[in-house]
Amino acid sequence: MPVAIFLLVTAVTALSVFAIERGEDQRAEAQLRAEASAIASALEQRANASSAYLRAGAALLAMLDEVPASRFRRFVSELRLDADYRGAEGIGWAMIVRPGEIGAFNAFMAEQAPGNRELHPAFDGSQPYAVPVTFLQPDTERNRRAIGFDMFSDPVRRMAMIEAERTARPTASGKVALRQEGGGDQPGFLIYMPVFDAIETGRVLKGFIYSPFNAQDFLAAALELERPGAVGIRLYDSEKTEANLIARISQEGNVGATYSMPVTVANHRWVLEVAAPPAETLSGLSMLTLIFGLLVASLLMLLVRMLTQQANEDEAALVWFAEQASIRNSLTRELNHRVKNTLANVLSIIALTRRRAKDLEEFADGLDGRIRALSATHDLLTQSDWGTTPIRSVVDAELAPYVQAEDHRIEIGGPDIQLAPNDALSLGLAIHELATNAAKYGALTRPGGHVTIKWHKIAPQLVRLEWRERGGPPVKEKRTRGFGTDLIEKIVANELNSPVELDFAPEGVNCVLTIPVREPTAFSMRAPRLDQDGPPAAGRS
User: Fold this and answer.
1) Is the pLDDT at 537 greater than 60, yes or no?
2) In 3-state terms, what secondary structure has residue 386?
3) Distance CA 266, CA 164 (A)
4) Of the spans 282-286, 386-390, 526-530, which averages the highest pLDDT?
5) pLDDT tens digit string along 103-112?
6) InterPro entries, alphabetically (predicted)?
7) Fold assignment, 348-516
């Protein structure tokens, strides 16, 4: 009997030690995840601050016919770069140089930046143009090493510039060795922002305003915003391999558990790995339980269970409060964005309607119809919690007043394609104006009139929608330019970021819209609710 009692108490004590150690491991893992999230947020904040300066520079340089050295130096000095720009080597300008412009570029550089500043490496004809470093501020001996280097000749830099041109937003390159290193292998990266010259036929790429970064310095600057605990940090480019390691803060001695998570820095994917210190053999509480377990094993086990349950409830409550704060911030930003866009559309409609109206009644009627078109699309977006909206729903909502008539025919067809909220609003305005025009002057004014609306994908991220009228009165060759034409060709085209093909053919109006198919922004729309007897219940996203 004494041996049985001893073995029973020993088993209870061992179970208590195991439960304590498991709770410690879970707490350490949660803390490691929190450290990784905080560091990732600091990295993204540093990159966003640098991107904001580059966006401002791109807006200024786009308005200049030429970018002389004096003007660029003045622009950089007036930025008054503060602590948010730490970790960067500076801000540079790289102009587009095509094969026939190399001599002119070298002469320009001889005038603006005396010394050996010719384009290099030599243009071999395998690329459509070169993108040499034209200016780089601050003007230091280190930065002068990069002047004249054709960044488009390097595959890693070229891929980033092509992506930046495609998306028209700041884009980071992969792991590179900066030219400022003078042949060294210290990892770095660059963030490019394209600068376009707007002309009547579209946008023409003038060059790139960019910032080079030493990856180690960038990581150190980001950690000034979020001072982590005693953890090791490693940053990888795209994938977690030793060859892709770009920055690290090593932890002395052995490491314990690790946690990895993806980080998006200026439209480029990094992988962040955080390593915790090695865990001790047993925690202090486990040692105490082991020593006194033979005397108070049952009582201690009950106490540990109560403490563990309380700790889990506290952690669940903290997670819930953090989610509430994140949801509130996301909804506030989203609401602000939606209200601004809607007000901008309303103001544009009022201005153009007033300009085209001949009297107050015509102004009121035109404005009423267009606001109702916006309202109809808003109703659809509200039903989807401002998520994606099908093209078919937008078209049906705007053509609802006309589909029931039996003296004309409306044909609608296309695949199930979802649109982002702003694109759905723009499409609704365009369909309303086309339908209003057809009902006043076109195919919907005569029996037998026929309107066809078809759409299909022409690329993974683009859909082509075609409006075609037949059977209506012949379209006049000489006609005044109306509000609908201005709205579709200017406001809608600008909002969709694609030109609109609007043809007033004699047999009927034809209109072709190219609409982007964007990835929906994922954010929690309803907060999870904290249950009385457990962790937060799952919410709806």
Assistant:
1) no
2) coil
3) 10
4) 386-390
5) 889 888 888 8
6) CHASE_dom, CHASE_sf, HATPase_C_sf, Sig_transdc_His_kinase_HWE
7) Heat Shock Protein 90 (3.30.565)
Any idea what the Cα angle at residue 84 is, between residues 79 and 86, rounded to 5°?
Answer: 95
Please give, one letter per residue, the 3-state secondary structure of 507-525: CEEEEEEEEECCCCCCCCC
Give ranges for CATH 3.30.450.350 in the chain.
1-279
User: What per-residue confidence (pLDDT) applies to 67?
Assistant: 85
Task: Return the half-sphere exposure (C-beta side, CA atoms, 13 A cut-off) of residue 534.
Answer: 4
Residue with the larger pLDDT of the pair 162 and 499: 162
Place of tokens 């002047």: 147
Residue holding tokens 């004494």? 2
Q: How many CB atoms lie within 10 A of CB 266?
A: 26
pLDDT for 286 equals 62
DSSP state letter for 148: T
164: which 2 tokens?
A: 């930046």
Residue 293 tokens read as 């377990």
Cα–Cα distance measured from residue 202 to residue 28, given in angstroms and rounded to the nearest whole number: 55
Q: Are 323 and 530 in contact (CB under 8 A)?
A: no
Digit-coded pLDDT (tens) for 449-460: 899 999 999 988
**Six token digits for residue 262:** 């993806």
pTM of the entire predicted model? 0.50
Three-class DSSP category at 363 = helix
Residues 6 or more apart in contact with residue 96 via CB below 8 angstroms: 129, 130, 131, 205, 206, 207
The C-alpha torsion from 335 through 387 and 488 to 166, rounded to 10°, is 100
Residues 171, 194: Cα–Cα separation, whole Å: 9
Are 143 and 136 in contact by the 8 Å Cβ rule? The answer is yes
516 backbone dihedrals φ, ψ, rounded to 5°: -75, 145
| SS3 letters across 402-448 | HHCCCCEEEEEECCCCEECHHHHHHHHHHHHHHHHHHHHCCHHHCCC
According to DSSP, the residues that pair with 170 across neighbouring strands are none
User: By the 8 A CB rule, do 511 and 466 touch?
Assistant: yes
How far apart, in whole angstroms, are the C-alpha atoms of residue 123 and residue 130?
Answer: 7
**Number of H-type helices and E-type strands within the chain:** 12, 17
User: What would the pLDDT profile of 271-318 be if each residue is shown by its tens digit?
Assistant: 999 888 766 666 666 667 767 666 755 554 555 567 677 878 888 888
Report the CATH fold assignment for 1-279.
Answer: Beta-Lactamase (3.30.450)
Provide the b/e sequence for 277-289 (b: ≥16 CB within 10 Å): beeeeebebbeeb
